[in-house]
Amino acid sequence: MGTAYTPGLKVSADATIEKIRRLPVKGEVLVDVGATVSPDTVVARALLPGDIEIVRLADRMGVDPDELTGNVRVRVGDEVRKGDLLAEVRGFFGLFKSQVASPCDGRVEYYTEVTGHLGIRKPPVPIEINAYVAGVVREVIAGEGVVVRTRGAFIQGIFGVGGERQGRIRMSCGSPGEELSPDRVPADARGAILVGGSSVGPEALKRAAAAGARAVVVGGITDRDLREYLGYDIGIAITGDENIPLTLILTEGFGRMPMARRTFELLRSQEGKAASVNGATQIRAGAMRPEIIVPAEGARDDDRAAPEGAGAGTLGIGTPVRAIREPYFGQIGEVVELPPQPVRIPTGAVVRVLRMRIGDGRVIEVPRANVEIVEL
Question: Of these four, 72, 262, 295, 318, which has the most CB atoms within 10 Å of its CB?
Answer without folding.
Answer: 295
